[in-house]
Design brief:
There is one protein chain. By secondary structure, the chain is mostly helical. It contains four helices and no strands.
């Protein structure tokens, strides 16, 4: 499956992107502030990928650079596409 933004394959990074997008959609649905939850989401992703120490801090910092409202909205739309895809299986 591919999103509007990039092709998502079956790699750890691809699964992490999908999980992040779905988490952001859940936060939106529950009317939670996604900005407050962002670091927690990225930190959990780092843990899932086994990233620790300085590498984890770098991962969070790099992820924060792309945490714009435009990217957030794109991620929400991608999550909706993932759900629609799975519903049609």
């Amino acid at each position: 499956m591919s999103s509007d933004r990039e092709t998502i394959d079956n790699t750890e990074d691809g699964r992490t992107i999908a999980a992040t997008e779905l988490m952001l959609l859940m936060y939106q649905t529950l009317n939670l502030d996604h900005n407050k939850q962002f670091k927690e989401i990225v930190s959990k992703n780092a843990n899932l990928l086994g990233i620790k120490g300085k590498d984890k801090l770098d991962y969070i910092r790099e992820s924060s650079i792309s945490a714009t409202d435009e990217n957030y909205q794109s991620d929400i739309e991608n999550a909706k596409s993932w759900i629609k895809f799975y519903e049609n299986l």
